Amino acid sequence: PGDVLVFLPGEREIREAAEALRKHSFGKLAPGLEVLPLFARQTAVEQGRVFASHQGQRVVLATNVAETSLTVPGIRYVIDSGLARVKRYSHRNKVEQLQVEPISRAAASQRAGRCGRVSAGVCFKLYDEDDFNKRPPYTEPEILRSSLAGVILRMKSLHLGDVEDFPFLEAPAPRMIADGYQLLAELGAIDETSKELTKVGFELAKLPLDPKIGRMILAAREYGCLREVLIIASALGTQDPRDRPQEHATTADQAHAKWKDEKSEFLSYLKLWAAGDEIWKHETSNKQRQWCRQNFINWLRLREWRDVHAQLLTLCHEHGWKENQIAASYEAIHKALLTGLLGHIGLISEEDKNYLGARGIRFYIHPGSALLKKAGRWIVAAEIVETSRLFARCIAKIEPEWLEQVGGHLIRKHVYEPHWEKGPGQVVAWERVTLHGLMIHAKRRLHYGPSDPKLAREILIREALVAGQVGEDWVRKWRFFQHNAKLMKEIEALEHKARRPDVLVDDELIHAFYDSRIPEGIITLAAFDHWRREAEAANPKLLCLEKEQLMRHEAAGITTDAFPPEFTHRGQSFRLSYHHDPGAADDGVTLTLPLTALN
Asked: What does pTM read for this prediction?
């Protein structure tokens, strides 16, 4: 006789084991056998059933919450799977991992100690002795499997020296320290070069919160949404108050549906807060509990959420930060949230409908999300956790333009293919914009001049003034341009007559002429025209070329006598034209006459 405590790694394994036991013919062998799950996410009422008195035998299926946190009475037998779901931080992917791992020898002994507290007990280990002996003696300390950003921030603010030199009992790996610095740089809390705290870093160190959540609160002051972000931040810092018991999952979902938001799960917290706040302010404690039961809300967790919010509010008042009186916009709230969650953004992959995340990761929206089928092209998530696969939880739609405003210090820009555009009269290029490897803009048009004035001026002279790629409006205004074009046309006519294409100088010499006269810093036609007007007022012929400057050789022998413009026959004049293009139909001299004169 006696109750049985079974240690399993997680909630899913517990539900599967409970189902298997209920379906098994166990009931015939042990009538009245009671199977009870026990895990941290259960409501207080559900957990309380484990401690209630009972008849017959009971099997408690528990996670490692029953290892040290809770002592289940009356346990005679322990069955230990030797596994636990351990929370780890991946410095490579910057995500939390909840992986099933073998427990340490110390944890196994602790589990064995759960039975036989009143009288002798038996522990069954579902793994062999060799496996047990090969396991580490103790569970790995949390500092070795957590993000160190908060630790580094606190040590910097307390002037405890570099984290690399601090005499930890268990020193974290250098790559974990480097990751902590990287996250703080992403939040703008440290200077990447000196690794010293910035103004934001000092303010962040005053908030007893995860640095990412603290950063949201600091940004909320700038965006005028402190009231809303304090509610969301305190929710993210505590357990979700919404309960979803397995046996009443559909009813719970219906109760929670009234707080859903079509674009953001963060805003669901605001709607839930507003509903709960009314009850909290105007109803008795009994009515509050009753409302929580009807709406599948955990009363204790709701109270914890409100307590954390009250503490954050007090902290803000101490620093003189005032809440906004006017309701904040969707954009302002999510820009503030983005400042702390730039590593949790995602861009949909058109191939298989998962999301491309920062630094090359791929993740899926959690199946329980209200936005599972409605999420947009760009999303941000409160957390990305690896269980059976990489899942994003608590997500919202965002606009890529916000990323440039919020994450300007992390944006990578590549400008390519500068070219002349006749319409706007300036040099234009394409810009590729990325954040953490995600493409925000693949080919965005931008004015190239300010980024490279020297090259922009060069292209302007070559394309606009030398090649003549300008609009008609400019041509009509510029006397020098008309004069130079006419001269070049005349010299080209001489080339055709002489049948030698080397009389007109090449483009380099014309470019050198303009280059010597136009000052530095002229990068648009508008700027050029403004300078030209002032310069020509002093010297009207400043930009006018002369015939000698445009001719490489003297055009000796090319006279009107040798190359007359007209042919006179019997008192009638007919036009002559000269064209040098060997092989073409009009190569040579062409006489143009009316059909009536042909005979």
From this structure: 0.78
